[in-house]
Write a structure and sequence with these properties.
homodimer; mainly alpha; globular
Chain lengths: 470, 470
């Protein structure tokens, strides 16, 4: 195994004072001069999150190996033990910093001089009543982390594993209930004649929220297997959510996009003067920026060739964080758009997950130890009974370029197919490659997915929704 | 090792329906007919907590042993691996139930028909504003559990361990700060000429609160070593706190104690009509009753001969819970009184902890494998340099009956002394005994301590405090 990576000392020496100054500045300066003082602090915490995670992972790795939280890298030629479950360090740093962040948006010392409203907006600060909501989210993050750690420790079986994100989301849901949160959804224009403009889903809304956290968690868990891919996708999704949030904040300048005008002096971007929208997206940002920090810290060590593995803890924790941002920010539909590659991967996997096509234990690409390139891994069908359904599914997927079949030229029977994952599709389309290049391909796919998501959300959605976005 | 214990099936069949009916009754009946509907639910949850813990510990024990969370019993003749860290199961059950409990006191469905006040008290129910406080306590419990588990897993060194309870109490303190909680203390009457009736401690109050959680945690951790003693003391302290809380609730009947009248129809016991006092002690009860439940479940398996060990997780978790009840209930001085045996044990241990008297690695009593009785363990002084301070300390303690010395009759030099713990004192005073009888002695001491505490609090405190108890 290559030696551990460490942050360049120069970078640390720049980042730490920068972070501290961002945290302290709102305390020193008359806060009324700042647009979003707590957000500035949050950026400081996000930088600290990056530095702390990047520092702690190599420092604590040995301890994880000692107690058996270790794995070996299946796509390498060496056999060294690599610390697993490093998502625990991310989660611990994240939750600690988010706890220390509590007084900034929620106590009065930042807001005492800023009781004024600008254009109907409370100059960008945050209502104290939302403290309970914030705390319930922290509880859910902690529950997800705890259950993730237990999963990594005890290797919980699949059927016990599935409800874990639902259990972790209970604090969020119950506080949402106790606080009498909205359970309505806005109906797309074409369906309004049928259902009305707004429909109250009632208890179904809670089912929807808990399923959202299950989805986010498992979506990240299932697209895995090559160095950096779990944390990389979490990072890109978190960045996409953060960019989306930034569009709704009150910036002191105007952005023109074609005929559309975003912002205006003290205007609130796409929030168009809605205080509620600003608050929701601020809350989401408070969760996303430190998540970006810890994920960046982990990917620094998890990038090819990996010195640390994220473990299930990261998937549970990051999935829960992203889901909570979507739930509390009320943009769950937009959030789902950022998961386009994961949804694609899931749908593609279904024939193997549901037993139509045989599913080997590991579906990750194979390392060719001569060329040192990754090749498609395959599912062997030669011993399977013939099945019309399977043949139709596989030949359709093959026609779409999503799998490559090996067919017996005499009998025309399918002997094997490449495994049905997005990683294998990328290898079919662009040829065998190194592990690092494959991860880059996945990351670019994820970025393309986010670009598509923004296009759908702000280009296409205009036809089916009006400005009334709740 | 003897076979695992299991709850009698008949008991389970009685307890589960009883618990469910207590939980469901306030939902069915017009809540206005009940005095404290959420408290009734809480009792139901406490019973469930007991059943769940008692069931899960033997069911999950093997998994703990498998991943190395195991220990062997030092005071037994057998050598079997016994699952450690079972406090984790207590904490998981406790936190899950307290999370599920959220809607009962904090949402409106129990209170919608009860907007009336009786004699100035809101018929015993709970203000929604306190939700943030409740959640912050849950966060602290979870942090304590997480850190306890990490301690059990990684065997954290002492100097890193000490601040753990302070870290775990941060959510509690920060929310207390953000909510602008009281930081004043009432001064005893004799000192009021000097300091005034009430003094605002300001930031010192936060230091005091975090030290309280450190104290509660370590007090339980240090009095350990014989089967059942950690969880037994936590159980008795929790019961004492709960009994103290019950004195402040509005009961529909009057209790006469000498010249003192407690309660009165819809009166609020010792709260004398203060809504705030009722609410504080209700919150404390909500925390204590399920704690009594999980501790009873654990002691069922941890009682001599132990089939399960609590681990540090229990000490952190139970200590934090008890401290939070004292902090949020504003009765930290009364709480400290319930720790009289622990304080005595700590003061007695000081000469060994601070190196005046040599401290062997284990100070627990020794098993005599012939008589099968526990005898005093001793610290060997024969190789130590002479020390006047040590001689004074040991001869004073020996004079008080708190240690037994072995003195060389020729030189009059102290050759050894019994270890300075309350367990050894009980063996000196009442003679060698079985492990089970020793635990009973400790439990009786703890009960006597609580009785003394109640006497001091409600008998003696009247001379130094008036009714103005904040």
């Amino acid at each position: 195994m290559p030696p551990p990576r460490s942050l360049p000392r120069g970078l640390t020496l720049i980042l730490i004072p920068l972070a501290l100054s961002l945290i302290i500045r709102p305390l020193l300066k008359a806060p009324s001069h700042l647009v979003l003082p707590a957000l500035e602090t949050n950026v400081g915490f996000a930088i600290l999150a990056f530095v702390a995670t990047a520092y702690l992972i190599p420092a604590l790795g040995e301890n994880f190996i000692k107690i058996g939280l270790k794995g070996r890298d299946l796509l390498k030629t060496y056999d060294d033990a690599i610390p697993e479950c490093q998502g625990l360090i991310c989660a611990a740093v994240y939750i600690t910093l988010l706890t220390l962040f509590i007084p900034f948006p929620f106590s009065s010392f930042l807001t005492r001089e800023r009781d004024y409203d600008v254009e109907g907006l409370a100059g960008g600060d945050f209502p104290h009543q939302q403290l309970a909501t914030y705390l319930s989210a922290l509880l859910s993050f902690m529950a997800a982390t705890m259950l993730g750690l237990l999963d990594d420790l005890f290797d919980i079986r699949w059927r016990y594993k599935l409800p874990i994100p639902i259990i972790a989301s209970i604090p969020l849901l119950l506080v949402y209930y106790a606080e009498q949160g909205l359970t309505t959804v806005v109906i797309p224009i074409p369906l309004r004649k049928l259902l009305g403009t707004v429909v109250d889903l009632g208890p179904l809304y809670y089912v929807y929220m808990s399923l959202l956290s299950t989805f986010c968690t498992n979506a990240i868990n299932i697209l895995a297997g090559v160095n950096g891919v779990e944390v990389g996708q979490a990072l890109i999704i978190a960045c996409s959510v953060a960019i989306n949030d930034l569009l709704y904040l009150p910036w002191p300048y105007t952005l023109r996009l074609g005929s559309r005008e975003l912002g205006g002096e003290w205007g609130a971007g796409l929030a168009f003067g809605s205080k509620e929208l600003v608050e929701r997206h601020l809350l989401s940002l408070y969760f996303m920026l430190p998540l970006i920090g810890v994920c960046s810290g982990l990917i620094f060590h998890n990038w090819y060739p990996a010195r640390a593995f994220p473990g299930d803890t990261l998937c549970y924790f990051a999935g829960m964080t992203i889901a909570a941002a979507g739930i509390l920010g009320h943009f769950s539909k937009t959030l789902l758009l950022f998961f386009i590659p994961q949804i694609f991967n899931f749908i593609l996997s279904c024939p193997q997950l549901f037993g139509i096509v045989p599913c080997p234990r590991h579906r990750l690409p194979k390392l060719n130890k001569v060329s040192m390139l990754l090749n498609n891994s395959e599912a062997d069908l030669s011993w399977e009974k013939p099945s019309v359904l399977r043949d139709i599914v596989l030949r359709t997927l093959s026609f779409l370029g999503l799998t490559r079949l090996t067919v017996d030229p005499k009998t025309n029977k399918i002997k094997s197919c490449t495994n049905l994952t997005i990683l294998n599709v990328l290898l079919i389309w662009f040829g065998p490659t190194t592990e690092e290049a494959l991860v880059v391909r996945v990351m670019l796919t994820q970025c393309a997915g986010s670009a598509l998501a923004f296009f759908v959300r702000y280009g296409v959605a205009g036809f089916v929704y009006d400005g009334d976005r709740r």
